[in-house]
Write a structure and sequence with these properties.
4 strands; 38% helix; redox-active center; alpha+beta; 84 residues; cytoplasm; single chain
């Protein structure tokens, strides 16, 4: 199963919504707070080409932000990532 990684900040409402959606869908994820670690922010920028949060990855695949995650979920893309 591919690992889900989400880059976030403490005050981002879309980050909160993304975490809530993943939790509700029972998808395990790792959260990286870029407001606490400048090196991780730079890594996010290099990987995604974007400077906004959240930035979500499934394995090496860049999903995008919250709206992209919602679209993926609507297409059934999160079903295969559920914890057993």
């Amino acid at each position: 199963m591919a690992k889900v990684l989400i880059y976030t900040t403490a005050t981002c409402p879309y980050c909160y919504r993304a975490r809530r959606l993943l939790t509700r869908r029972e998808v395990a994820f790792e959260e990286v707070r870029i407001d606490r670690d400048a090196a991780q922010r730079q890594t996010m920028l290099e990987r995604s080409g974007r400077d906004t949060v959240p930035q979500i990855f499934i394995g090496e695949r860049h999903i995008g932000g919250y709206d992209d995650l919602v679209e993926l979920d609507a297409d059934g893309g999160l079903d295969e990532l559920r914890d057993p």
